[in-house]
Amino acid sequence: CNIAADATACQVAATGDAALQVTFSQSAATSLVLDMSSTTSCGASGEFCPQVFMVTSDHVGNTLALSLCSYYKQSDYSSHIITYTFMNVGNTHAFTVMDGNQIGRAVVPPGALRECFCHCSGTCATDTNNRLYCTHASQR
Predict the structure, then answer these.
(1) Which domain of life is it from (predicted)?
(2) Domain ranges of the chain
(3) How does DSSP assign 65-108, residue by residue?
(4) I need a surface site. Which of 14, 21, 30, 66 has the fewest CB within 10 A?
(5) Residue 1 and residue 53: Cα distance in Å, rounded?
């Protein structure tokens, strides 16, 4: 999925594929917002919903946001914890992971990854009730 301008969709994953490669290529702050309850992000048939995002970022202002992160294949999975992994496979710029609250939950520098867990509190069809809880690198 090549992001040359702000976007709200990428191709639906192929059958058997739960990873999505995202390349930000505008050389400016760009956002990708994926609605995880939508067929444009997550197919309803044999396709897996993306849970691993391999991102190449070309600007430190790039953001990848998951809207309604507690949904899987158009169904409310709030009785489960859904795990998402964000990898920065680029060499130069970090990107920020956001949820439906439009708050940065994790910054992923080049060569790093962050794991995030989605939890919904209340009515899960309300985007702001879906929140990502992300791991961060700890000091030794």
Answers:
(1) Eukaryota
(2) 17-134
(3) EEESTTEETTEE-TTSPEEEEEEE--SS--EEEE-TT--EEEEE
(4) 14
(5) 11
